[in-house]
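Exercise 3.2. Students should predict the tertiary structure of the chain below and write it as structure tokens, then compare their answer with the key that follows.

Predict this chain's 3D structure.
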Amino acid sequence: MRPGQILVADHSGVYVIKMVGDVRLTLCISFDQFIDTMFSRDDFCDVMFDLSEAEAIDSTTLGLMAKIALQGREEKGITPVIFSNNDSINRLLRTMGFQEIFTIVSDLEAPVKPEQPLAMDATEEQQVKEKVIEAHKILMGLNQDNRETFRNLVKMLEER
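Answer key:
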């Protein structure tokens, strides 16, 4: 598997987030900072994920994706689009209940171009732990299966 990378671009307020390779929590702090910056922009109006080159995505990253969808719905009235033509990734998205908060498509009329990679996080363990807990609580809020799947992980992390 290729190491994970998140590429981002702003096309006049429409943000493109492309995930490549094996995307893991090592990018969670910079991804969350990007999310905060994106929502703070006056011209932010929509977001699209391109997962066509993603090989794997961990649950922390999925939780942050869900954060974008829920916050986007609440603040902007948008439903983000996920482009994914990978059956394994699509199965993972359905398992998490993402079809309820995203529009998931398997092809695009025109390619989208991400431009800038997010930097790998060099942060404190405590920051990463807090972000992992937040991301999993977001996933737990999506459905009962997620609540049962991640309950023990969140409890264990909160007790440390």
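Discussion points: The CA atoms of residues 23 and 57 lie 5 Å apart. The chain is about 45% helix and 25% strand.
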